[in-house]
């Protein structure tokens, strides 16, 4: 079939069932009514092992139970951790590294609410930490588990969710990433910068690994998920014209996807065998797209970003 805007995650998973079979897949951010949940649900019928994560034990249990209702035979393992805490990320990575199984695909879906300025326990900005710094550290720590899945015919993959809005980021304030200043903070500016950095990170991960791991960045498009329904995000989404005063999607300003449609491109990035020789690319609507935005066309930026992230986590990420 031809994939596009209207393709669902389940349709992609069915098309690539052979590629998913036997794989161990870890998906972050799998709360109900979210893109990560739909991603996990589509993978569940086919994968050897599906690891779902979340920062709230009750919500994680609800997601696991919901998947089990739909796919009783699914082999699911829950992993509790908060990407906004570097200590929690390290603890979760220790658990993953103790698993007997390798990890074939790591999908970084989790994201922080777009809301007022908030510092994490590590004195870092919340959105940037959850969307970028935490995933960087977790990937670094579980990289041996990913590389353990590599064979002569298979390269493990890391899929990082970005946004169609990544192109609106106007450069990188690396100093503010390390030492966030509330006076500089604008919710969507922080969001756009983090999502733009994710595009760079996927490409730089692929380059630095030298073929050991393939990284891909994915835009899910615009869908009405639990992110837009966070109380701390309402005013920001309303004032920006994304949702209406009643809290429902503003259909006039955006071409909305359903949540299953929004998860489809993630599945393509994770399992399409034709992408094997295209590491580091950006995908939208289930296909490769040009990387947009003047701030990410500079080849020096990915190296600078990598160095800044290494400095924040306090260790080198080398292969």
TrEMBL record:
Keyword Oxidoreductase: yes
Family of the protein in this entry: Belongs to the short-chain dehydrogenases/reductases (SDR) family.
Signal peptide: none
Keywords: Oxidoreductase
Molecular-function GO terms, alphabetical: oxidoreductase activity
Protein name: NAD-P-binding protein
Gene3D superfamilies: NAD(P)-binding Rossmann-like Domain
Pfam family, one: adh_short
